[in-house]
């Protein structure tokens, strides 16, 4: 092992997965929403947090807009 390395000559590459990195957050969800996704998780075998992420990612890809109507 060398005592010192010349980092400039290592030819660093960008991480190809950097766009898919996840960030941990805290979010407050209604119990019925969590229960719904947990039920879906038990049917599909996919963890409920992954299902929530997949659903939100689909919303982003489809550029879905919220249709909020206050009663």
Task: Tell me what you see in this structure.
This protein is an all-alpha fold and 71 residues long. Helices cover 39% and strands 0% of the residues. The chain has two helices and no strands. The protein has helices at residues 31-44, 48-61. Helix 1 crosses helix 2 (48-61). The mean pLDDT is 90.
Task: Please give a quick description of this structure.
By secondary structure, the chain is mostly helical. It is 39% helix and 0% strand.
Return the structural class: mainly alpha
Instruction: Kindly state the percentage of residues in helix.
Output: 25-40%
Low-confidence runs of at least 5 consecutive residues = none
Rg over CA atoms, rounded to whole Å, is 21 Å
Gross morphology = elongated
Topology record:
Elements: H1 31-44, H2 48-61
């Amino acid at each position: 092992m060398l005592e010192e390395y010349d980092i400039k000559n290592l030819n660093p590459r960008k991480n190809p997965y950097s766009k898919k990195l996840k960030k941990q957050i805290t979010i407050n969800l209604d119990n019925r929403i969590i229960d719904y996704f947990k039920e879906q998780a038990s049917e599909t075998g996919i963890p409920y947090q992954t299902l929530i992420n997949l659903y939100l990612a689909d919303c982003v890809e489809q550029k879905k807009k919220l249709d909020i109507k206050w009663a």
